């Protein structure tokens, strides 16, 4: 599925840098890998603040929505150590992820650089990419540490990323599963693509996380990223 408005939005003929979010973007939403991280975050908050699971969950989701990540909220409001937090919440089982040769092939055919911009850690990204089998197609991972602990959608995070990797935003495309994380890239001149669930499997997401596919800053929408990327190179062949 791709949004019909795509014909009227920014295209890809000029793109020389392809920027991807990691979780729920480079692998399908229905894997629900992030659900494990989500549960670990609740546990961490409950233990750190000595509150019951219901209150920990409320705090987690409030901070996530207000600060971009629950970690940023815990750092700002309670002085949490980012290293301790990241080490705890990313202790998960990555085995639900399976190798995706179709995605690897689609990435390989894309002309230009491929980079990852994630609110997670490099260590987590490495484990995910190892399972998926196409990490070698990416030049670098820009993680929350490289972002100086400022998560997307903070404007300075995107600017740090562009500067660090010498990316011309006007010649770059950004792929994300959260519409709000595409607003700044679009303002900077990037072509934006929202990756949504395919609708055939159950996904565990907050209602607000599923919003935004009709937003003006979303150029394209797809529920099949591998197919979407393959279609781009097929049309240019």
Topology, pairings included?
Layout: E1 17-20, H1 33-49, H2 53-67, H3 70-78, H4 82-89, H5 101-109, E2 113-117, H6 122-132, E3 140-142, H7 155-164, E4 172-176, H8 183-188, E5 191-195, E6 220-222, H9 225-236
Helix pairs in contact: 1-2, 2-3, 5-9
Looking at this protein, list some descriptive labels.
9 helices, Rossmann fold, alpha/beta, DNA polymerase, domain 1
Please give a structural write-up:
By secondary structure, this protein is α/β, with parallel strands linked by helices. It folds into two domains: 4-29 and 98-236, HAD superfamily/HAD-like (Rossmann fold, 3-Layer(aba) Sandwich), CATH 3.40.50.1000; 34-89, DNA polymerase, domain 1, CATH 1.10.150. 41% of the residues lie in helices and 11% in strands. The protein has a six-stranded parallel beta sheet, with no helix packed on it. 39% of the residues are buried. Residues 2-7 have low confidence and may be disordered.
Can I get a quick summary?
By secondary structure, the chain is α/β, with parallel strands linked by helices. The chain contains 9 helices and 6 strands. The two termini are 21 Å apart.
Pairing-aware structural class of the strands and helices? alpha/beta
Strand order of the largest sheet: 3-2-1-4-5-6
**Sheet of most strands:** 6 strands, parallel
CATH-derived architecture of the largest domain:
3-Layer(aba) Sandwich
User: In the residues, how many domains can be counted?
Assistant: 2
Computed CA radius of gyration, to the nearest angstrom: 17 Å
Provide the β-strand percentage band.
Answer: 5-15%
């Amino acid at each position: 599925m791709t949004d019909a408005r795509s014909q009227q939005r920014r295209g890809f003929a000029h793109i020389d840098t392809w920027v991807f979010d990691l979780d729920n973007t480079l692998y399908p939403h229905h894997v629900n890998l992030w659900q494990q991280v989500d549960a670990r975050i609740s546990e961490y908050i409950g233990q750190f603040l000595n509150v019951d699971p219901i209150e920990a969950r409320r705090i987690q989701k409030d901070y996530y929505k207000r600060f971009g990540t629950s970690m940023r909220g815990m750092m700002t409001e309670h002085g949490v150590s980012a290293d301790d937090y990241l080490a705890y919440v990313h202790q998960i089982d990555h085995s639900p992820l399976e190798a995706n040769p179709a995605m690897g092939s689609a990435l390989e055919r894309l002309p230009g650089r491929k980079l990852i911009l994630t609110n997670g850690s490099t260590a987590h990204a490495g484990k995910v990419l190892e399972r998926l089998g196409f990490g070698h197609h990416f030049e670098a991972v820009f993680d929350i540490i490289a972002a100086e602990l400022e998560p997307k959608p903070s404007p300075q995070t995107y600017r740090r990323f562009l500067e660090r990797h010498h990316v011309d935003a006007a010649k770059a495309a950004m792929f994300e599963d959260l519409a709000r994380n595409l607003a700044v890239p679009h303002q900077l001149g990037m072509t934006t693509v929202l990756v949504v669930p395919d609708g055939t499997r159950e996904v565990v997401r907050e209602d607000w996380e599923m919003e935004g596919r009709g937003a003006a800053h979303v150029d394209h929408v797809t529920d099949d990223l591998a197919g979407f990327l393959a279609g781009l190179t097929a049309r240019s062949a």
